[in-house]
Amino acid sequence: MTDSLTITDNRTGRAYEVPITQGTIRATDLRQIKTDEEDPGLMAYDPAFMNTASCISRITYIDGDRGILRYRGYPIEQLATRSNFLEVAYLLLNGELPTRAQQEAWVNEITHHTFVHENLKKFIDGFHYDAHPMGILLSAVGALSTFYPSARNLNDPEVVHLQIVRLIAKMPTLAAFAYRHSIGMPYVHPDNGLSYAGNFLNMLFRVSEAKYTPNPVLERALDVLFILHADHEQNCSTNAMRSVGSSRVDPLSATSAAIAALYGPLHGGANEAVVRMLGQIGSVANVPDFLKKVKNHEAKLMGFGHRIYKSFDPRASIIKKLADEVFEVTGRNPLLDIALELERIALEEDYFISRKLYPNVDFYSGLIYQALGFPSNMFPVLFAIPRTSGWLSQWKEMVVDPEQKIARPRQVYLGEGIRDYVPVEARGQQKELART
Ligand code: CMC
Fold first, then answer.
1. Among 343, 371, 399, which residue terminates a domain?
2. What is the distance in A from the centroid of ligand 1 to the CA of 367?
3. Radius of gyration of the chain (CA)
């Protein structure tokens, strides 16, 4: 067997042999396929990148048909039960689990970069009282780049490392400040004696106590949620990070772009949409009617379906178990019964089976976040914090990849052909046409 593809162009009768490497052909190899010398060559048309690999990566492996997710080869189930978020972030960024000394140094570094410049507080103060915390976060992270102009120097590994540390360390602080601003409470400074997740809970929820002590079950649950959300290969926001980063802008600005991508309801905004949807359904009795609407394409079952997972989302299985542990402490979320009933019926219905639609990571995560005391507009923010480690790992891989260049897709132009400019006084008829 030869690792190549023979293509016959029926327009010209010519045959071409294109090499196959790692199960792919190079789209640029199609450019040689032309009808004549004027022809720019064949392109692959792939809106939404349904079947296009944009990079070679060694970070995260997903087998969507078998429900497998691994970071650097380690199964997500093992990491979720045995590791912690900062160790996972190190693994994603560096390719290996840290030794004890490396781990201590890494945790120490992150812990000592959690504070933000006082002017950033003033910046956050400028937002309207009901500003969405995700909007505040993406703006604040963009603003961070103005505090660290040297971040633009991508050729110095120490500078690059410092930006990575800064982002991972400051993300919870900025997220917590965004939350406190939205509820009109004073900002709480980081407590460097607490864990990454524990300190985040402190900055969110501390009121007047001298020292905030997080509930260990809830602290661990948040840490596990951070592990599950840390990376997911070439998803929409990671693609944004790589694409924007390919212009060689600093990583702080690129991360702001990635947060914007994550903000959308089809991506990181989905868990917020799930809780809203469950609230609108209102009771278990209304589930069948709601599912009728979904099947008629009048509504979407948020938290279901995935571009890659077509049997189950392994993160959803872990989260469902985690929910039980959290609800033991916080009390049962009343929306859980509606979610369980939705899942039960949906998994039996042909509409969902035939389309391979299963609960994804967002179906239950929102219920846990709600039980932890977060308002729903904080849910995407809680996704952005850990995903920063994934974005940065992917960005770091991209900037040293000799095959990567500035991202610049092609297009198929189907607009007007050349035509002469029409002066405004002669355009009346055209305007009428445009409105009809
Ligand atoms: N509810 C009802 N129908 C659905 C759903 C859903 N959640 N998802 C897909 N479908 C239908 C869709 O209407 C289409 O049906 P038809 O063939 O009759 O037109 C078919 O399933 C295929 O869907 P698609 O839109 O082509 O699938 P996609 O791969 O483009 O979309 C998705 C993936 C995640 C955007 C989509 O499933 C969706 O919108 N889900 C709800 C939002 C959600 O939960 N997003 C979180 C994703 S996981 C976290 C993350 O990675 O950010």
1. 371
2. 20
3. 25
Q: What is the pLDDT of residues 315-347, one digit of tens each?
A: 998 998 999 999 999 998 889 999 999 999 988
In a domain, 352, yes or no: yes
The response to whether residue 304 sits with its C-beta less than 6 Å from ligand 1 reads yes
Rounded-to-integer distance, Cα 308 and Cα 122, Å:
42
- Selecting among 63, 117, 267, 337, the annotated active-site residue is 267
- Whole-prediction pTM: 0.92
Given this model, what pLDDT does residue 332 score?
A: 86
The answer to whether position 407 is within a domain reads no
Contact 231, 244 (CB under 8 A): no
Ligand 1 contacts CB of residue 317 (under 6 A): no
Kindly state the average pLDDT of the residues 112-117: 96
**Residue 339: which CATH number?**
1.10.230.10
- Look at residue 327 and tell me if it is in a domain: yes
- The runs of H, that is alpha helices, within 148-299 are 157-182, 196-205, 216-228, 236-245, 251-262, 270-281, 287-295
Residues 203-228, mean pLDDT to the nearest whole number: 96
Provide the domain count of the chain.
2
Among 132, 229, 232, 306, the active-site one is 306
Q: Look up the domain containing 11 and give its range.
A: 4-45
Residue 433: the pLDDT is: 57
For ligand 1, whether the C-beta of 276 sits within 6 Å is: no
DSSP 65-84: TTTEEEETTEEHHHHHHH--
Question: Does the residue 322 lie in any domain?
Answer: yes
Mean pLDDT of the chain: 94
